[in-house]
């Protein structure tokens, strides 16, 4: 392309979307507990699978997950990504670790941050525990957990993380 | 199901800026808007597309023959917005409309303001009203108004 054809070719294209998020009854129950520092999953009455965060129904059985299952804030790393590339607007300085966290007693995992970890040493099955913000900062959000950090416990056998037919 | 009044509800805002490259054809279209001119691209079959198209959807040829169209045109279809919301650029009732500009064979999606719903029908004549400041964006056309 000649210099003539390469004018100030870029234009700003701002995108802005404002919306209201309405939590359903299952998420409302879950987040009301999170605000108190409790992680309460919901269990399927049929296959007994425990979902955290819960969405209100069991996708396998198609029934409401109306059993409340209190969980601890301990679990293991189910999978992880080490992020080396900075994302504009993201205050976290690379390298950092995003991981799928499988809490003890849960059948599914959720995405959160891992910190206080030697990146060379991170692995699937590694035991971790939530690091909470000060209580006075707690809101209806999983951001009440600053991140998860490794704890000195033996790794979880990876085979136990695989899908189990119950 | 609990009462819906007990459900948690929170406002969210998803916003980000990015720059897009307009490319050689659309750059000419946007540059012309900055000079209060509306351009289209003309294909070998004589069809004129405005907003400028980079390719002819029928013949698939690439287009770069720029021709001036408008600023008048006629309403092809419209949707009246009686109660504009926050994200709308016009705060009074207005219409989103497909406007076929004079000299063009395709139509442009834009807004029609300064009129009543009853003033509009398919075929109504409108003309571009320009923004006070130009930014070489489609919003340099502030909206279309009824042709006097």
Description:
The complex is a heterodimer of chains A (166) and B (148). Helices cover 7% and strands 35% of the residues of chain A. Chain A has one helix and ten strands; from the N terminus they run ββαββββββββ. Chain A has one helix at residues 25-35; strands at residues 10-12, 15-22, 39-43, 50-51, 67-71, 74-83, 96-103, 110-114, 127-132, 145-150. In chain A, a hairpin with a 6-residue loop joins strand 7 and strand 8 (110-114). Chain B has one domain. Chain B has one helix spanning 23-33, and strands at residues 9-16, 19-21, 38-42, 48-49, 65-69, 72-81, 94-101, 108-112, 125-130, 141-146. In chain B, the strands form two sheets. Chain B has a five-stranded antiparallel beta sheet, with no helix packed on it. A three-stranded antiparallel beta sheet of chain B has the order 4-3-5, covered by helices on one side. In chain B, strand 7 and strand 8 form a beta hairpin. The longest helix of chain B is centred in the N-terminal third of the chain and has 11 residues, at 23-33. In chain B, 26% of the residues are buried.
